[in-house]
Design a protein that fits this description.
alpha/beta; Rossmann fold; 7-stranded mixed β-sheet; 11 helices; globular; binds 5-S-methyl-1-O-phosphono-5-thio-D-ribulose
Length: about 325
Amino acid sequence: MIRPLIYDEESNILRILDQRLLPFEEVYVDARDGFQVADAIREMVLRGAPLIAVAGAYAILMEARKGADIGRLREVISALRHSRPTAVNLFNFLKTIENVLHETGNIKQRIEETVLQFIRAEKDLYDRIGEYGSGIIPPDATVMTFCNTGFLATIGIGTAIGVIYRAFQKGKVKEVIVPETRPYLQGARLTVYEMRKLGIPHRLITDNTAPFLMELGKVDVVVVGADRVVLNGDVANKIGTLSLALAAKEFGVPFYVALPTSTIDSRSRTFEGIRIEERGSEEVIFIRGNPITYPDTPTYHYAFDITPAKLISGYITERGIFRDISDALKAL
Ligand code: MRU
């Protein structure tokens, strides 16, 4: 299986699969220091909340191995913090690293240990999410997902796609409905690519088709990922998730969110004061370099929306499935 990140121990370089070129080209770009990783995150060379955090972890590891002093490490941490504002996994990881910087003793060694432990734990998580989540998929199911949440967005089989893949292995999935996910087209470009690689039957739809399919009774369950879940259970995920959740509620379709607990923002009860990323107009106006309207048209381009907890049937985590997200934090 192609990997979105390859860390080369010998050269201390992080090779990043350039997701902007998928599904047509599989090209890696090299990041040689922490700042280059931050640039790659901002420019969407890689994306997906859990993968962004792992890339940040490698950024810190590379810097520690280059002998960066505390001042430089703090600059790299700041660059990473300013890469993309909404997904919380990277922020949670950087907080842990900042705590290490306050320790006494061999800081370089402690950073290495912390990073490697984080990456090891990340590798194990997704099979557990998949196993728990596969239980909520009914037999012969048509499952709708959103954006991209699989092996391109994590260093495992993925969150929502981890659930779908495990259920598929158990013979429960008839078809996956993949909304294209305008404007960046993670569904059309990346999830379709993953479905092909995994051999899962799938069908691509334009985003505005999703509610009608639910009204027609053609969707059994919706499973999506998350970029940040706050303690009241509200979920920030790719823009368009909210419309799926509203439609699912209206038409009685169960709506689940799959996430590692590192996607929980345990410091925030609500989304008040949390920045929802707004990206440039060019991503709305151009598709693969081709304008679809006048290039100077004003746009809105929120990268994420917020789905209220009341629309969510349950949270599928590596610790089990919960109705209330704060129970996931207590369940250790
Ligand atoms: O803008 P992106 O592509 O980084 O957004 C990704 C998503 O919204 C995913 O649904 C989310 O990160 C969950 S990934 C396992």
